[in-house]
Amino acid sequence: MFKVKRWLGFLSGPNSGVVLLVVAAFGAVLFTVLAGALVFGNTRQLISSAEWVQHTQDVLASLQRVSLLTERIEYRSRLYELTGNVEQLRRAQASGNQLETTIAHLKVLVEDNSDQTGNLQSLNACSLHLNQALSVFTQQSEISPSELQQCQQAIGLMTDREQWLLQERSKGSQRSSFTSIGTDVAFIGLFLVALLVLFGFLLRDAVLRQKTGRLTALANERLARTVNQLEDRAQESELLTSGRDELQLCVDVQQVYRSAAHCFSRLLAGTSGSLCMINNSRQSVEVVSIWQSSGRESVVEDFHPPDSCCGLRSGHARWREPGESEIHCTHFKGDAPEHYLCMPIAAHGNTIGMLYVQCDSPAEVSIVNQRMDGLRQVLQLTGMAIAALNLRTKLENQSIRDGLTGLFNRHFMQLSLERELSRAARRQQTLAVFMLDLDHFKRFNDTFGHAAGDAALKAVAEVFRSSIRNEDIACRYGGEEFTIMMPDVPMTVALHRAENIRAAIASLHVPLDRETFAEFSVSIGVAIYPNDGENADQLLRRADQALYRAKRTGRNQVVPYEQVEAFNQA
């Protein structure tokens, strides 16, 4: 009792500050030693727990490899049975040797676990049976499914046991971690409290002010970053909406190409690039539109094959940056830039082109990465728009075009004739209608074959296309018969143009393989609105009568309907 009073008096005396400081220092040292010992013990326990967890994971990995090797043995042996490929048998035997090695390693891993001894023995016996079977395996042999099932059953039992051990050991490691963290936090908290008591309220206020300042600065920084992100997202959303609306207004692929390049230039400000499409033969890639920053020139040109682009070769977007990839695409004119992005364009599961984006600085790379989601959306919309327009064009051509010659078909001719007659009547103009028939074409087809006949029809169609105006309409009426409509031409001009077509076909040469066919001729009958007929049926019938007259009077000539009428009257 006397000693306690003496210490209290000493602590309340004039040297109480020094005494408190010495006591606090001694307490801090003792506290530090105790904390270190506790941390050391917790650390050893954590390391031990982690080692057991890792050991269990190693066992599971070995079991997984055993399962994989077993499946490979079954797969390779089945391939050998089906194909007779000796290489497959060798691979199966190699997998069997690896299986024995892996099981031996697994035995070392689980020798401390008596629960796995029986399963391991079953697995080892199964491995020996498999290797014995493989050593004398022939194409007529067959690995017993029961042996494979026993292997998989043993693997499954061992895996379940190790999974349970992994779960239990993970829980133990987690509990040790929580205990260690809680103890460390408690000691740190007590130590901080002691320091705060020792150094007083001034230090506490200084720490609080510093902490408050940091939190305020961090909050301001986050707020500014959030505001910038929101502004950028709003701008990106506006650009995407504008680009989508503009793409929806496009009526042909050229408009899509221009609109897409404009949208990319706005979305990826400061960059340059190009839109490249795979041609119909899928042998080359053509640059269809570009966008450029000031002072830059496009470094991408048409290239082939498409595999020259690493993005097209890999099938996904690919950045080329120093330190990350040293493989360059080969579709550049001159030296390749340091930073660029190649993104394939796909529609309906087919790759139809590639987007190239060039960045000359890390800042531009950062802009592209920030707007990658928007870039993918615009690229997807572009691909869908191109595919839709191409499909529409293809369907339109299939519905109105002849598949062999590329001329308009008979259905389109009938619709066009009605329309042209209505227009001619409204404008009080003429309309010339030609009926054309290749002379002796059946004999030519029977003599030289259908391939030669098809080549001849295609060549005749080319003569028609090169001999008529843009507003004229050439159609395949059927077989070797054709129809041509020429708006707003008098009979003299119509006969002159028909004669030009006849002469061009007479001098036609059609190459096929190593042969060249010539001496073609055509008979042409001409009727004109309104002199020879006022409706479509009359015009076609009278043009056909004129054609029949040309056939009967020697072929290879042009006959207007007025000659037929004069002959009938005579």
Q: Could you walk me through the main structural features you see in this protein, from its secondary elements to its overall organization?
A:
The chain has helices at 2-11, 16-83, 86-109, 117-135, 145-248, 253-267, 310-314, 362-370, 372-400, 410-427, 441-448, 450-467, 491-506, 536-552, 561-569; strands spanning 272-278, 285-291, 318-320, 339-347, 350-359, 431-438, 473-478, 481-487, 510-512, 515-517, 522-529, 558-560. It is α+β, with helices and mostly antiparallel strands. It has three domains: 17-213, Up-down Bundle (Four Helix Bundle (Hemerythrin (Met), subunit A)), CATH 1.20.120; 250-395, GAF domain (Beta-Lactamase, 2-Layer Sandwich), CATH 3.30.450.40; 401-569, Reverse transcriptase/Diguanylate cyclase domain (Alpha-Beta Plaits). The strands form three sheets. The protein has a five-stranded antiparallel sheet.
For this structure, the CATH topology of the largest domain is Four Helix Bundle (Hemerythrin (Met), subunit A)
Biggest pleated sheet: 5 strands, antiparallel
Per DSSP E runs of 2 or more residues, the count of β-strands stands at: 12
CATH architecture of the largest domain: Up-down Bundle
Order of helical and strand elements: HHHHHHEEHEEEHHHEHHEEHEEEHEH
Computed over alpha carbons, the radius of gyration is 44 Å
Q: Stretches where pLDDT falls below 50 for ≥5 residues?
A: none
**Count of separate structural domains:** 3
Determine the structural class based on helices, strands and strand pairing. alpha+beta
Q: Could you say which overall geometry the principal axes of the C-alpha atoms support?
A: elongated
**First and last CA, distance:** 160 Å
